[in-house]
Fold this sequence. Notes:
single chain; mainly alpha; 50% helix; globular; IS402-like_dom; Transposase
Amino acid sequence: MEMVRQLVPDSLWELFLRVMPVARVRPQGGGRRRADDRGVLAAILFVATSGCTWRQLPPMFGASWQTAHRRFTYWTEARVWAKLHRIILDELGAAGELDWSRCAIDSVSLRAVKGGR
């Protein structure tokens, strides 16, 4: 749980709750208990920042790699990441709470698309 709180502090979680779509519910019911959204978000952030593959995701987040990937896809389709980015820029950027000095982008931080133009 400590890793989850490090990757998803309360302030980020509160912002995320504002853009998170309603959970999909299986019409037939049943199945397993739904994995905790905060733990899944932490797992997604872990994959994004560590460079590990979905299949290498450690079990400490309380969700399988399949669940984390499925939720990532669902949230991507719901434009959660773009909405969260907009909130962060609008609210934290305008308040002067963002440290822009660490936001430099160069060729090292961008991946080239194979076979791209």
